[in-house]
Automatic annotation (TrEMBL):
The lineage of its organism: unclassified sequences, metagenomes, ecological metagenomes. One of its GO terms (molecular function) is NADH dehydrogenase (ubiquinone) activity. Pfam families: Oxidored_q6. Residues 63-146 form the NADH:ubiquinone oxidoreductase-like 20kDa subunit domain. Keywords: 4Fe-4S, Cell membrane, Iron, Iron-sulfur, Membrane, Metal-binding, NAD, Translocase, Transport. This is Unannotated protein. GO terms for biological process: aerobic respiration; electron transport coupled proton transport. The keyword Hydrolase does not apply. GO terms for cellular component: respiratory chain complex I.
Length: 154
């Protein structure tokens, strides 16, 4: 089921989820959310809490977007890694990866399993790491704002 979802995401040419970060209304972020485990629930919690507000511009990349963010959460196994890479490769234009949670950052409690990637940075470049197991929704927002700060000064 997850592999199929990743394949469907990888085949899309334009991401379909755009958000504004509450408290920074000028900031528009398109997130291609590849939720692989419990950390993905925290993304939903950020939306429910009003920390991430769906952008009203509709599907696709709204005007004014400078980059697409691939938010990776959960354990990435050898079987899932190709789907994550397809999703990454399907992003046109500027892109950034945010590693969200211990499993995506380091393999989490499954780090010693032979089929678990020991951090998504072994597969693709990560711009921002958000620690936690699972990280709180506020940590996601802080990570996204850190991404904006880091890319603005780069």
């Amino acid at each position: 089921m997850i592999s199929l979802a990743l394949m469907e995401v990888a085949e899309r040419r334009t991401p379909e989820r755009a958000y504004r970060v509450a408290g920074a209304p000028a900031l528009r972020i398109v997130v291609l959310d590849v939720g692989l485990a419990c950390c993905a629930l925290e993304v939903g919690a950020a939306i429910t809490a009003g920390l991430l507000v769906p952008d009203v511009a509709g599907p696709g990349v709204p005007k004014g977007i400078d980059a697409t963010v691939l938010l990776i959460s959960g354990t990435v196994t050898d079987a899932l890694a190709p789907g994550v890479l397809r999703a990454w490769d399907a992003i046109d234009g500027a892109r950034h990866a945010v590693s969200f949670g211990a499993c995506a950052n380091t393999g989490g409690p499954y780090w010693d399993a032979p089929t678990v990637t020991k951090g998504i940075d072994q597969l693709l470049p990560v711009t921002v790491y958000v620690p936690g197991c699972p990280p709180r929704p506020e940590a996601l927002i802080a990570g996204l704002l850190r991404l904006v700060d880091e890319t603005a000064t780069a």
